[in-house]
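haha ok so turns out i had the wrong file open the whole time. this is the CORRECT one, sorry everyone. sequence first:
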Amino acid sequence: MNTPKRRKLQAASWFAVVRTYQECTRRYAQLLRSFDLTIPQFDVMNAIHQLAGQATPKDIAEELVVTRGNITGVLHRLQQRSLITTRHNELDGRSIVCHLTRPGQALLEQARSAAALFIETQLAPFDDAELRDTEKQMNRMRSHLQTIDPDMIAGQVPGRTRRAAAEA
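then structure:
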């Protein structure tokens, strides 16, 4: 049963998760700005590194779970800064393959070291059991979120049809 007390507890818990995520992202972005990188630029450079010679825009987008259009501008800015180069894909002449330049690789290594230290510092107050429990709870929350249909929920609001919710 969803009592007023339970709803208040749910809202407080939800806001705690959201605020923590926002603060983490804000601080992480601040850290990467020290390397003149944005979070998306850092993520794209990491994906290029991970894909090692197979970093087509399509593969980078799939690795980052975004659309190709989302990374096009990022790739362009990284290329303008000489952090990446692109070459025609030998396997598919219609696409390109992205590579880190030496300066790009050096910058990525520095930023990755800082990111690892950031995570270590951020999680230092928590013991191993708390870290395992946090991971378990967040994975459980993410799995449950994937089962929720926000449009269906919006359609359950009195006086609001499913179609009106989808058009909003």
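The domain at 4-125 is CATH 1.10.10.10 (Arc Repressor Mutant, subunit A).
again sry for the mixup
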